[in-house]
Write a structure and sequence with these properties.
There is one protein chain. By secondary structure, the chain is of the alpha+beta class. Strands 1, 2, 3, 4, 5 and 6 form a 6-stranded antiparallel sheet that branches. Strand 3 and strand 4 form a beta hairpin.
Length: 151
């Protein structure tokens, strides 16, 4: 039986416009969104906001960086609405995954790499489509909020 530090799974709150993490920052946690709205996005070379995915009221954020080779976030995550999240420590997730078998770790790392490559392609080619961007159409005001948050 794996022993995880139950106290490490703490709750946190973000206000609208607050940054959860920045692209390129070290991943120490993944997050479960319990309530609110967090948009995950990258920037094109001309600083256009390219939504990667959107999480509303329930979902996982930052898990792909847990399984990446460099352990860094590949996109920005910013609250569009006041949000409540649960922090999941990277070390505890990796401890659990490592105990489950090498093949599970290989699958998760492979999937994370594919997601990272797809996100890079979408950003590089400035691809904006409802299907690729989780149906998220950002208003000009929301885009300004996101750009201000990461500056």
């Amino acid at each position: 039986m794996i022993s995880l530090d139950e106290n490490a799974f703490e709750e946190m709150r973000l206000s609208s416009g607050e940054v959860l993490f920045k692209q390129g920052s070290r991943c120490n946690f993944s997050y479960i969104l319990n309530q609110g709205h967090v948009i995950c996005f990258s920037l094109s070379n001309d600083n256009r906001v390219i939504p990667v995915f959107s999480v509303k009221n329930n979902g996982l954020i930052g898990e792909d960086a847990i399984f990446s080779e460099d352990g860094k976030h590949k996109y920005y995550a910013v609250a569009l609405k006041d949000s409540q999240l649960t922090k999941l420590p990277r070390k505890d997730i990796l401890t659990y995954i490592n105990s489950a078998g090498d093949w599970i770790k290989k699958i998760l790392f492979d999937l994370a790499e594919k997601v990272t490559n797809t996100n890079a392609l979408i950003s590089e080619h400035k691809i904006l489509s409802e299907r690729l961007n989780a149906g998220e159409t950002l208003s000009l005001q929301e885009e300004k909020l996101l750009l201000k948050a990461i500056r």
